[in-house]
Design goal:
With 302 residues, the protein is α/β, with parallel strands linked by helices. The protein has two domains: 193 residues, Rossmann fold; 87 residues, UDP-galactose 4-epimerase, domain 1, CATH 3.90.25.10. The protein contains nine helices and 15 strands. The chain has a seven-stranded parallel sheet, sandwiched between helices. The chain has a two-stranded parallel sheet with strand order 6-15. Helix 3 links the parallel strand 4 and strand 5. Helix 5 crosses helix 9 and helix 7 packs across helix 9. The longest helix has 20 residues. The termini are far apart.
Length: 302
């Protein structure tokens, strides 16, 4: 029996991985803190309340479950705070503890969540094999440092490991202050959606597709970093107007109302050839369908 621990299981991405893992026959152990979530599948998931930042709880979780697989999403993600928070440093240590405990207890394969913020954003188009890594935020620095140590630990411990670099996820349960939910909630309330000029080009991917890609990566034998993205460039203003048209409130969109940050990169798009060809995964949810489902979720949760 393949036994997997999903950390951050109540979070934005982690919650979507659980039904996929169940469908693939895993015994799923979901680590959460501080509260679990209700997603159905009663009796099929084993929930574990665990503060991974606490060394003993971290160790006890792995020793109790003895997982064969690890899918690690948990991190500090407070919107507006996580880019520069010292909590990132604590999560490097907690994640290393988790991986070392996993290896010591007989774990076989671990996949950890990274970020496109590890790259040098001056390049615009990002390849795992070519683009330099030069993170400019503490969040990116900590993720990249963890990746480097994780890569060496897996070799020394004799376990298989991969690192999924997430680009721009959106979907239900996203933090309300981020672009997609902030536009949706403003328009649903009949308020103006105050935005930057929206000319930035980004690589958006639905949260369910992110989870699906991670599970596929977990099941593959691919090692090292893999971009988790759609590979499709889209202007931010196009996403904003697509949301407005679906809601029927285009006149409430106010582009240019918010100043664009001084060092905002004009282009951030992933090379997804490794994801497509080696992991053999491609996104299933179109941008229009993803935005529509996200809007419907927010209608019920404002």
């Amino acid at each position: 029996m393949r036994r997997v621990i999903v950390t951050g299981a109540s979070g934005f991405i982690g919650r979507h991985s659980i039904p996929i893992l169940l469908d693939k026959g895993y015994e799923v152990h979901a680590a959460y803190y501080p509260e679990p979530i209700e997603i159905g599948y009663e009796g099929s998931i084993r929930w574990h309340r665990c503060d991974l930042l606490e060394h003993e709880q971290n160790r006890e979780l792995i020793e109790e479950v003895k997982p064969t697989h690890l899918l690690h999403f948990a991190w500090y993600t407070e919107h507006g705070e996580y880019w520069g928070s010292i909590e990132n440093v604590r999560w490097v240590q907690a994640s290393l503890d988790l991986v070392l405990n996993f290896a010591r207890c007989g774990g076989e394969r671990a996949v950890l969540a990274g970020t496109c913020a590890e790259y040098d954003w001056n390049y615009g188009y990002f390849s795992e094999e070519v683009t330099p890594l030069q993170p400019q935020t503490l969040y990116g620095i900590c993720k990249n440092s963890l990746r480097e140590i994780f890569s060496n630990v897996t070799k020394q411990a004799g376990i298989s490991g991969a690192w999924g670099r997430i680009f721009f996820p959106y979907g239900p349960h996203e933090a309300a202050g981020r672009l997609v939910p902030s536009v949706i909630t403003s328009l649903l309330k009949g308020q103006k959606a105050l935005c930057t000029h929206g000319k930035q080009i980004r690589d958006y991917i639905h949260a369910e597709d992110v989870a699906s890609a991670f599970v596929c990566l977990l099941e593959s034998g691919v090692e090292g970093p893999v971009n988790i993205a759609s590979g499709e460039p889209v202007a931010v203003r196009s996403i904003i107007y697509a949301i407005a048209d679906l809601i029927g409130e285009r006149e409430l969109v106010d582009l240019g109302a918010i100043p664009t940050p001084e060092h905002e990169p004009p282009l951030i798009v992933a090379d997804v050839r490794k994801l497509n060809k080696l992991v053999e995964w491609k996104p299933r949810i179109t941008l229009e369908d993803g935005l529509e489902s996200t809007i419907n979720w927010w209608r019920d949760n404002i």
